[in-house]
Automatic annotation (TrEMBL):
Transmembrane residue ranges: 25-50, 56-75, 147-172, 205-224, 230-251
Position of the signal peptide: none
Protein name: ABC transporter permease
Cross-referenced InterPro entries: ABC-2_transporter-like
Keyword entries, A-Z: Membrane, Transmembrane, Transmembrane helix
Source organism superkingdom: Bacteria
Presence of the UniProt keyword DNA repair in the record: no
Length: 263
């Protein structure tokens, strides 16, 4: 509990520092929301034209879109600078975190806390509309609501693990932004759409080595498509726990090989 309390205190301090520039905070929030809205509107126009994609309706794809968006918002809110480890390695600022009397990862996660209000609002609205339509049509029951909350937390843990594993390569290569474009940005974009669109090798990649598909696609198969059985969600959660544990071990190994800017 002392570790959690310390993390929350550090997050609070980060929020207070960011709110010193309120105009910049609200402008970046609005711009991020507008970019996401335009992205989903383009998808909606395509779906209204063709009605469905690979058997997935507008509301089902909206569920995929909203769950990965909200999981990413949860991950980036509490661990944003894991995604930006490169700047700490290049500038040598990671050395400052090494001398703090708290775990390096905890110190890194508490830097530059982002509320990501635009993503939360947009994702929440899309998810509410899509789930509401699916429930009213009888395709899913009200049990989909608590199950989706579990999916969001599990998805955030998976995205955090992927981001952490990718960032860890920076201890050897220093530059990891291009790799992050592949494992985080491009992969997250890919699973906003049904994975039936992709060839078998790419689906396998997105479910194993870069398992973003486990964050929204696999749970959606059970929750909104009624495929497989009740065991699918526990299996996804177990996978997320094991994958996160492996990436934490990888992080500790990489950190032990880190050569500071002063060495």
């Amino acid at each position: 509990m002392s570790t959690v309390r310390m993390f929350l205190l550090l997050v609070k301090a980060s929020v207070r520092s960011r709110m010193q520039y309120k105009f910049n905070f609200w402008l970046s929030t609005v711009l991020a929301a507008l970019v996401s809205v335009m992205d989903f509107l383009l998808l909606s126009v395509i779906l209204w034209k063709f009605d469905a994609i690979q058997g997935w309706s507008l509301y089902e794809i909206g569920y995929l879109y909203a769950t990965i968006l909200l999981s990413k918002a949860l991950y980036r809110s509490f661990a944003n600078d894991v995604h930006h480890l490169e700047k700490y390695l290049v500038s040598g600022d990671l050395d400052q975190l090494l001398v703090r009397p708290i775990p390096v990862l905890l110190a890194l996660m508490s830097q530059n806390f982002r509320l990501m209000l635009g993503e939360w609002v947009q994702g929440g609205i899309i998810l509410t509309l899509c789930l509401g339509q699916l429930i009213s049509s009888g395709q899913v029951t009200a049990a989909a609501i608590p199950l989706t909350l579990v999916v969001l937390v599990t998805g955030a843990a998976l995205l955090f693990a992927i981001g952490l594993g990718t960032a860890t390569f920076g201890f050897w290569t220093t530059r990891v932004s291009e790799l992050q474009n592949l494992t985080e940005d491009a992969a997250n974009k890919a699973v906003q759409y049904p994975m039936e669109l992709y060839p078998g090798w790419l689906r396998t990649l997105l479910l194993t080595l870069i398992p973003v598909g486990m964050a929204n696609y696999m749970p959606a198969l059970y929750i909104v498509k009624g495929q497989f059985g009740w065991w699918l969600l526990p299996a996804v959660m177990a996978f997320a726990i094991v994958f996160l544990w492996l990436m934490l071990r990888f992080w500790r190994f990489g950190l032990s090989r880190y050569q500071s800017s002063g060495s």
